[in-house]
């Protein structure tokens, strides 16, 4: 048997397939789904350990393509062990770590190797790694792709950050030339789309006038800044032919611009995050810096329009943008100065089940398209991850949709436990998380295995396990 893979049968669960839900037995061999069999036809034949899933739903393990775990260099902010433990407890079985907020940032092949070494043997779930596109590193992109980078990330606004070699904003020329190179490599570029010119002028004006509260921060990063940057990035995608992914889109206006480009035939995808669907600018006024993010939380009306986009199937991917920091970096009277980032990695699936399925009646297969199938598709992982089908990795989450679960401070596995939904009671409980057939988390016992996660190297034209 390959290391880190397991054999078992998951019996009688309500299995969420891409287009329907069916009661099935799932036979797992060598960490892969060997067969999906009608209920009660598998367990007698095969001498395998049986996991009884009667009364539970079996979902494909969620795939979070947008987390910041801060290693190498800034493990005190999060780190692979605590970050991936939080994801395992939240039913996430694969993540893709962002190239910034670590030291050094992942902008050279040798830095990608350092990150792989930092993660080796320390992740509870499988992972891939983003490379970065920054000013002056276009000649490094081919080496990053050869090293297995899942794709590339660029910022159109200043990302901020710490360390002597921080991740910088991609100016227009870097963005366009970088997209041409990424298109040549057959890769994808993920973009933080806010117009730096507009947000920096508005922030400077506010600070000159001594206006440095949460509301001033919110007003300094209006929806117009997101729309401007989206339009600019799309114009470069048209010119370069580069596949484009917009991270953490916060407004329906930006979604509509992206959908129009999709209809033109551009290869473009759109991601939003649970915090834009669950929290509003009011939350930033009441909960303060723990929910500071860029783009900022929007109005209730914006939120409902974003939910409509989710329901209409216009949102390709839901990702956490788990972006932690030491608590001290969240404390300042100047709201512009505190770290921007929300630590929601453990609660993405719970929130989307709660507000998407329970409250808005969005079917589970449709939810899991955004949480698993389409994230895998975007990063060339979809022949091994992202759905429940024969031959796929046995990355599964058993959920009890009728058992309430309180996300207490003690239940949080991330390092600084700054999850804004702490204390919230959900209608569903994540009962068990399996990575390639191995149970890594169980609701009663918590983490129940060593870190079994593996690096997934993306090779041009396909993916092989690292
Ligand atoms: N430097 C960051 O981690 N930034 C992140 N922070 C947010 N979104 O507030 C991001 O993804 O832009
Ligand atoms: Zn961002
Ligand atoms: Zn981010």
From TrEMBL:
Enzyme Commission no: 3.5.2.5
SUPFAM superfamilies: Composite domain of metallo-dependent hydrolases, Metallo-dependent hydrolases
InterPro entries xref list: Allantoinase (IPR017593), Allantoinase_bact (IPR047604), Amidohydro-rel (IPR006680), DHOase/Allantoinase_Hydrolase (IPR050138), Dihydroorotase_CS (IPR002195), Metal-dep_hydrolase_composite (IPR011059), Metal_Hydrolase (IPR032466)
One annotated GO biological process: purine nucleobase catabolic process
Catalyses which reaction(s): (S)-allantoin + H2O = allantoate + H(+)
Pfam families the record matches: Amidohydro_1
Cellular component aspect of the GO annotation: cytoplasm
Cofactor binding notes: Binds 2 Zn(2+) ions per subunit.
Pathway assigned to this chain's UniProt record: Nitrogen metabolism; (S)-allantoin degradation; allantoate from (S)-allantoin: step 1/1
A GO MF term: allantoinase activity
Purpose: Catalyzes the reversible cyclization of carbamoyl aspartate to dihydroorotate. Catalyzes the conversion of allantoin (5-ureidohydantoin) to allantoic acid by hydrolytic cleavage of the five-member hydantoin ring.
Protein name: Allantoinase
């Amino acid at each position: 048997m390959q290391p880190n893979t397991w054999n078992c049968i998951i019996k009688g669960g309500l299995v969420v397939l891409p287009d329907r839900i069916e009661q099935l037995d799932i036979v797992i061999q060598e960490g892969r789904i060997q067969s999906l069999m009608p209920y009660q036809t598998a367990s007698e034949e095969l001498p395998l350990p049986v996991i009884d899933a009667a009364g539970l739903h079996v979902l494909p393990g969620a795939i979070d393509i947008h987390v910041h775990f801060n290693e190498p260099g800034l493990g005190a902010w999060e780190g692979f062990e605590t970050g991936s433990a939080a994801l395992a407890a939240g039913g996430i079985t694969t993540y893709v770590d962002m190239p910034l907020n670590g030291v050094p940032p992942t902008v050279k092949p040798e830095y990608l190797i350092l990150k792989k070494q930092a993660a080796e043997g320390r992740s509870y779930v499988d992972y891939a790694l983003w490379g970065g596109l920054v000013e002056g590193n276009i000649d490094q992109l081919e080496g990053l792709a050869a090293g297995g980078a899942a794709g590339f990330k660029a910022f159109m606004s200043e990302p901020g950050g710490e360390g002597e070699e921080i991740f910088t904003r991609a100016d227009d020329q870097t963005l366009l030339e970088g997209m041409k190179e990424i298109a040549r490599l057959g890769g994808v570029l993920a973009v933080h789309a806010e117009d730096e010119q507009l947000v920096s002028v508005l922030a400077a004006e506010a600070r000159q006038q001594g206006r440095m509260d949460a509301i001033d921060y919110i007003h300094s990063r209006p929806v117009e800044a997101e729309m401007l940057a989206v339009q600019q990035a799309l114009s470069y995608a048209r010119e370069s032919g580069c596949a484009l992914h917009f991270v953490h889109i916060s407004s329906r206006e930006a979604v509509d611009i992206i959908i129009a480009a999709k209809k033109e035939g551009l290869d473009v995808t759109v991601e939003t995050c649970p915090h834009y669907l669950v929290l509003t600018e009011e939350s930033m006024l009441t909960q303060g810096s723990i929910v500071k993010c860029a783009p900022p939380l929007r109005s209730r009306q914006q939120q409902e329009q974003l939910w409509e986009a989710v329901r209409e199937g216009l949102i390709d991917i839901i990702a956490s943008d788990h972006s932690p920091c030491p608590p001290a970096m969240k404390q300042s009277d100047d709201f512009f100065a505190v770290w921007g980032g929300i630590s929601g990695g453990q609660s993405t699936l719970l929130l989307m089940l709660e507000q998407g399925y329970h409250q808005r009646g969005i079917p589970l297969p449709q939810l899991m398209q955004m949480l698993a199938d389409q994230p895998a598709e975007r990063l060339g992982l979809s022949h091994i991850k992202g759905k429940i089908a024969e031959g796929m990795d046995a990355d599964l989450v058993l959920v009890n949709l009728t058992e309430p679960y309180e996300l207490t401070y003690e239940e949080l596995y991330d390092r600084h436990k700054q999850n804004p939904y702490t204390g919230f009671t959900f209608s569903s409980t994540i009962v068990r998380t399996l990575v390639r057939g191995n149970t890594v988390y169980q609701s009663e016992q918590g983490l129940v295995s060593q870190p079994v996660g593996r690096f997934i190297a993306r090779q041009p034209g396909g993916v092989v396990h690292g």
